[in-house]
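User: My collaborator sent over this chain with a note saying "see what the structure looks like." That's all I know about it. Can you take a look?
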Amino acid sequence: MDLDSSGSDSSSSEERQRRKKGKDRKRKKEKRDKDKTHKVKKSKRSKSEKRKKARDKDREKGPVQLSKHLAGDGEQYSVISGKKINLKVKKTAEDIEAERRRADLLMSLNAIYE
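Assistant: Without extra context I'll predict from the sequence alone. Here is the result:
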């Protein structure tokens, strides 16, 4: 009797494994099908169409006209912000004093190493 019961145990375990494999396969297949339906299909374009579209984008931008940003009376304006560029900045009394101190310090440091 032990042989019959052990034989049925092994056959029942084999059946369970087969059922489990079948369920796993079904789940995987359902998942694949679900993924396929959710994907959005991209329209296929030829290489020449892609190149034409890229060229059109480049043409739309075009070159920057600097004459719009530069005044004719000698004043320069920033191309980015459009603000007037100050070429000569007026120095205040504080700036002049700070510059003099830096020069003195530089002279003293150079004298130390000579």
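A starting point for your reply to your collaborator: Residues 2-38 form the longest helix (37 residues).
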